[in-house]
Amino acid sequence: MSQRIKGIGASAGIAVAKAFKLEDPILEVEKKTIEDPEQEIKRFTHAIVQSKRELETIKNHAGKELGEDKAAIFAAHLLVLDDPELIDNVKNKINDENVNAESALDDVTGMFISMFENMDNEYMKERAADIRDVRKRVLAHLLNVTITTPSMITEEVIIISEDLTPSDTAQLNRNYVKGFATDIGGRTSHSAIMARSMEIPAVVGTKMITNKVENGTTVIIDGIDGDVVIDPTGSELDDYIEKRYKYIEQKKEWAKLVNESSITNDGQRVELAANIGTPQDLKGVINNGAEAIGLYRTEFLYMNREQLPTEEEQFEAYKEVLSKMEGKPVVIRTLDIGGDKELPYLDLPKELNPFLGYRAIRLCLDEQSIFRTQLRALLRASAFGNLKVMFPMIATLDEFRQAKSILKEEQQKLRNDNLNVSNSIEIGMMVEIPAAAVMADQFAKEVDFFSIGTNDLIQYTMAADRMNEQVAYLYQPYNPGILRLVKNVIDAAHKEGKWAGMCGEMAGDETAIPLLLGLGLDEFSMSATSVLPARSQLRRLDKTEIADKMDEVLQLDSAQQVKEYVQKHFLK
Q1: Active-site residue 364, yes or no?
Q2: How far apart are CA 14 and CA 178, in angstroms?
Q3: Is 503 a catalytic residue?
Q4: Is beta strand 202-204 parallel, antiparallel or unpaired with respect to 8-11?
Q5: Which is it for the CA torsion 529, 255, 15, 157, positive or negative?
Q6: In the predicted model, is pLDDT for residue 469 greater than 90?
Q7: pLDDT at 120 over 70
Q8: How far is CA 517 from CA 475, 501, 532, 534, 565, in A?
Q9: Which in 185, 420, 505, 507 has the greatest CB count within 10 A?
Q10: CA angle 400, 427, 327 (to 5 degrees)
Q11: Count of beta carbons in the 10 Å neighbourhood of residue 98
Q12: What confidence category does residue 190 fall into, taking pLDDT thresholds of 50, 70 and 90?
């Protein structure tokens, strides 16, 4: 008898295949007294070397298949294996207590994992997952246990797992892995983001899928509606094969819009842009017909390395993106390090709440040598395309004025050196701090554009960490309070003759798109794979009609009421 499990649709599409349960091996650690600590340390060192070799292979594969930003996680794992705090503690424990390597490793990593998990900081909690992943790998070598990995799969399957680690997702082979379902996770989890970039169907957060499915059972993954059907009946298979066929046909229809403009049903034009992290992401931008790059996250240039990138390295990366976009707008965000992104070679202070601390523009204005190097590289690259520079995490007018002044100083220096710099660079800011959204009328007098970063704006406005399951219900993109802030920013920009865009997840959300259109948003920047569905949706929407109803929407008293209103009036 078939069974249906409900989860979260994390990556759209329909897949049917046999289940492949990706389960952690049983790594039982038994504490033993040893007589030769030196020999035990050699055994431990050999396991570390083997683990490093594996991670290097995985990192290189991830870099080629998924881009350097996705490979950065394995550089972090390699750093864990080079961390003297961990390695020396294990060796000292073997030496001082005459215990076996497995026991020493288990104790020391357990201490670090517990410490990180108890920190009130999402970035540090993620470090616990890194250490857990590394511990599993090293323990497996010490115990001579083979870890089942996706790289071993040689037939079409759907992976069933409690969760997928970064190591797992980097090894997924799209020829064989047709989709996956997990017990835990949400739309913003690592595995969900990876599934979307690989364009394979995924359902996450089912809570129970691993307990319900046996290896080899036929499974249907519906990443559109978030359903998993176990051991489907013949009629259910037929229904989903039909649904998959319709989805594939829908994608073919979307593909016809690649070279079309983004125009509403009543002839109003907006700009659909894509968010990228590295030059490797350009292929997806071009293939999906994005009209611009609305957010180039430059911090990936600074990660997965042992020192700051040089001006020349940065210049080449920016030049490549600007050149290949052939005159289309490219909004490049200056360095946004801090919060959930740390650099091991920068000795930044440890903070109780780094998301609200020393990060982004605050760091750049303080560490001006880093900032000026980046600005010089950007300005030099401006000669090769349509560059727009955006400052992140702006809270006050003084911050924006200071950042703009530094950019202008470097621009003049380059001109004094007879270097070619564009004369038409727009300078804008991210609106992600509520104070900036409230003061948008003042900022609009001095910026060339706004880009609303809803991922942070929503969690700061609602005082709710979007990665915290206990308060996740407060991460409400459709909350009337959020919509009023967005309206305030857009109206302020338009009053001064400036444009307003959005580069948060909300910009590509099917329910949010009509609302943002009605509020007058000029540019929607999203993941590249969302561009064509968004363009298709826009062509069915009447901007004038929606705009006339926005006052009514803004008077609703809850996110749920807004969602129901959109579904009734705009998603027919």
Answers
A1: no
A2: 9
A3: yes
A4: antiparallel
A5: negative
A6: no
A7: no
A8: 21, 11, 16, 11, 15
A9: 507
A10: 160
A11: 14
A12: low
CA–CA gap between residue 559 and residue 503 (Å, rounded): 21
**Per-residue pLDDT tens over the stretch 427-444:** 999 999 999 999 999 999
Q: Which residue do the tokens 């349960």 mark?
A: 21
Q: What is the DSSP string of 140-183?
A: HHHHT-PPP-GGG--S-EEEEES---HHHHHT--TTTEEEEEES
CA distances from 177 to 275, 292, 426, 475 (A): 26, 32, 44, 32
Output the CA torsion sign for 496, 502, 503, 504: positive
Instruction: Report the predicted TM-score, pTM, of the whole model to 2 decimal places.
Output: 0.74
Burial class (CB in 10 A: 0-12, 13-18, 19+), 67: buried
Token pair in block for residue 303: 């990660």
Please enumerate in sequence order all residues whose Cβ is within 8 A of that of 135, keeping only pairs 6 or more positions apart, or say none: 105, 106, 109, 113
Classify domain 37-143 at the CATH class level: mainly alpha
pLDDT for position 437:
98
Exposed/middle/buried for 555, CB within 10 Å: 0-12, 13-18, 19+? exposed
Q: Exposed e or buried b for every residue in 168-186, given b needs 16+ CB within 10 A?
A: bbbbbeeebbbbbbbbbbb
Number of neighbouring beta carbons within 10 Å of residue 373: 19
What letter does residue 265 receive in the DSSP assignment?
T
* Residue tagged active-site, from 77, 141, 364, 503: 503
List the alpha helices (DSSP H) in 176-233.
190-198, 209-212
Please give the pLDDT value at position 254. Answer: 94
What amino acid is encoded at 198 in this protein?
M
Q: Which residues pair with 269 in a beta bridge?
A: 263
CATH topology of domain 3-23+154-237: Glucose Oxidase; domain 1 (3.50.30)
Enumerate the β-bridge partners of residue 272.
524
Concatenating the DSSP letter of every residue in 201-247 gives -EEE--SSHHHH--TT-EEEEETTTTEEEES--HHHHHHHHHHHHHH
Tokens of 26: 């049983």
Closest CA to 384 of 451, 330, 312: 330
Length of the chain: 572
Query: Among the CATH numbers 3.40.309.10, 3.10.129.10, 3.40.50.720, 3.20.20.60, which is that of 270-431?
Result: 3.20.20.60
State the catalytic residue, choosing from 190, 364, 494, 569.
190
